């Protein structure tokens, strides 16, 4: 999925972990339990305390580095890159390639059990097929490996960046280095880099087309609407 696109005025927001469908419960006296408020249900000051940050100065560089070291980068988990040997083996699993290998082996077996089994030239057809198949698989594996390296390099060159407030200063950082508790400054056209909790917003709208297919921009607000028992919860915010 593509990141959400911001289409309105500048707005600071706190990065936070993904929201769960229902709040967790904690034991209270061994016989009762009470829900823990999630970031979306807290006022901005409570969210800031929850993540150990400051609404005006943000995290310190030391806090951000420590959190990044503990939680890892702000990106989806990537699959391990296949090795050249693995790519070579994968090239040999194609249907046509397997037919050619079977035909080559059959040719060698037939000649080995026939009247010309002592003649080396009788095995040339099967050996030639195997050599051509292995050369073709090697070239294809090498080409695919080089294409993967080029794509990875291109991805690093086009790394998205975002403004955050750290030590009271607005700095531009790579999106993977955004951590929990960061005070993110969003402007018109910016890509939302993580799960965020708005702490101040003015006529903010977000394009969620890549996520929900909704063609119209969706309004967002930092205000919290109190839940009423039995009332259906709206997915859109109250302005």
Description:
The protein has helices at residues 44-50, 61-71, 84-91, 95-113, 124-157, 209-212, and strands spanning 5-6, 11-15, 25-28, 32-35, 161-166, 169-174, 183-186, 196-198, 204-207, 218-220. The protein is of the alpha+beta class and 239 residues long. The strands form 3 sheets. The protein has a 5-stranded antiparallel beta sheet with strand order 6-5-7-2-8, with helices on one face. A 3-stranded antiparallel beta sheet has the order 1-9-10, with no helix packed on it. The protein has a two-stranded antiparallel ribbon with strand order 3-4. A hairpin with a 3-residue loop joins strand 3 and strand 4. Helix 3 (84-91) packs across helix 5 and helix 4 packs antiparallel against helix 5 (124-157). The longest helix has 34 residues, at 124-157. It is elongated.
